[in-house]
Write a structure and sequence with these properties.
Chain B: Residues 295-409 form the Moybdenum cofactor oxidoreductase dimerisation domain. The complex is a heterodimer of chains A (234) and B (425). By secondary structure, chain A is mainly alpha-helical. Chain A has 9 helices and 5 strands. Chain A has a two-stranded antiparallel sheet. Chain B is of the alpha+beta class and 425 residues long. The chains are: A mainly alpha (234), B alpha+beta (425). At the A-B interface, helix 2, strand 1, helix 3, helix 6 and strand 4 of A face strand 1, strand 3, strand 4, helix 6 and helix 7 of B.
Chain lengths: 234, 425
Amino acid sequence: MSSWARLLAAGIAVGLMTGLSGAWSAERPRVGAAPAEPAAKMGLGREALPEEIAAWDTDVRPDGRGLPVGRGTVKQGDELFQERCASCHGEFGQGAGRWPVLAGGQGTLRADRPDKTIGSFWPDLSTVYDYIRRAMPYGNARSLTDDEAYALVAFLLNLNDIVKDENFELNDKNFASIKLPNAEAFFDDDRETSEKKFWNKDPCMRNCRELPKVTGKAISVDVTPDGKSGPKVD
Amino acid sequence: MRDKSRADLVNRRRFLSAASLAGAGIAMTRGASATDTTKPDPLITEVQDWQRYLGDGVDKRPYGSPSKFEKNVIRRDVSWLTASAESSVNFTPLHELDGIITPSGLCFERHHGGVAEIDPAKHRLMINGLVEKPLVFTMDDIKRMPRTNRIYFLECAANSGMEWRGAQLNGCQFTHGMVHNVMYTGVPLKVVLDEAGLRPNAKWLMLEGGDASGMNRSLPVEKGLSDVLLAFAMNGEALRPEQGYPLRAVIPGWEGNLWVKWLRRIEVGDQPWQTREETSKYTDLLADGRSRKHTFIMDAKSVVTSPSPQAPLKYKGRNVLSGFAWSGRGTIQRVDVSLDGGRNWQTARIDGPVLDKSLTRFYVDFDWNGEELMVQSRAIDSTGYVQPTKDELRKVRGVNSIYHNNGIQTWLVHRNGDSENVELG
């Protein structure tokens, strides 16, 4: 293919892509065109090696994709949790200080003060495994083995009464079959239909409401840091 | 265009006279500075030290910093909000800013595992998953790619999140300071994805940070191919460490949590990953117990930064009311301001660049007669979305959403010029 033909082909491909992603292209900035589309590969970067991908690609999806081979029991998880996690999350996952509460809270999502925990709120168990393995324990991330992460997830299921048997073993085979109670309560962003009334062609300009009354003040809550002070600066 | 601005001007005059009518009977004081104007000002008649003696030489501050008289212009945190400083947030001092660009050192910070300090020579960006060829790039590779410059706002989805149940924090720095507006230099993500070659079933991307939290978020591939940038510079210089040095994602108009800092990997997949940050956090719990997810776009919003609790009115007579407006759906078309708690509205004067998904500056030049004011602003964007009142928002979402509170803010300005955050009923 001549370089002109390649350019033309690239142009067609870009045109198709733009057409397919109509919803997004409508939002594209009008000021200043995007840089010219490259006609061919830039030849930058190098191929990622399998060992490198394995080292970083630890993410896990709800369908179990990405789970490493491994296993751990509730009992093993309990021991690990008390040793590695309880100082922040509490012995029973109830949270210490302002650190996250991990268990309990079922049935509180419509309450005045919802308690959003793994058992009461999180939709997918894979999130727990993914997060523990990438970021926990806080300040010593990626120090747990795959089996230890399985054991901790098993214990968290137990703390949330989703698994009762302390001999229960969680592994890469049974993982995806476990569903969390609040999984069905999530739905995709629908603001553009459910909040359509906020698109209002003619917002009121005159005598729009009754005489307003002050019904609440931030100063009565008194939780604002002193605006004049701040961290020491030199 | 000219007709429109004339109409605005006429409207504004009408509005200003209405405001002064409301305060008829209160004597207006002019200037009202404390100085005795009958005696000569010694700052003028006497030679001051800085007028006689030499100042510092050129290299005193090789990297310049603000005047010592600006030492209060700093980011501040609200210590009770979070468990530790490494998983916390601080706030942009919006009341001290003007124009539309946020100085790099004042851009609010939000970290999940502290500020990673990464030597750019040791940073790698990996693209893997549903691509023809998984690739690894160095920062040098990225800087050899075609780049572009864009100004965008970044707003944390939790900005104003403390205000759902009522007025809580007394200052726009704290109620609205999880926003900043910066010129980014970076490579369109599309360039990098094209280099790796997307497979036909590529639908979602996962962006992952190289910090101790390994922050990961799923992003629809359509957005990734439209206006997302991989930025290495902000406001003309390298990113600040707290903003993701050496490389961060820029996701225009979408919630700040998606703008992964210290970006080390992009995985291509066919469905979202349901990571911690897009399930247990950054989902909007409604009153009926259900939760809205993937609420990426930041709705149109505005706030008056002066007067505000940290920026009281000091003088009767001439004053400048000012603020910011922004929308994740496009440009700001109009900003209305009310001085009487939303009964009557007047279109503000927009000044400076009006850019796509950028902060936009507005002003109302007005005479204050010392009367109590209930100051509000209302943004209208290029899609016709009108910023709702807090009560309108609560009616459709309840008060447990935490995220995406773009309701109209009220500052009560007292007769002495002090302002405070109030809730109106």
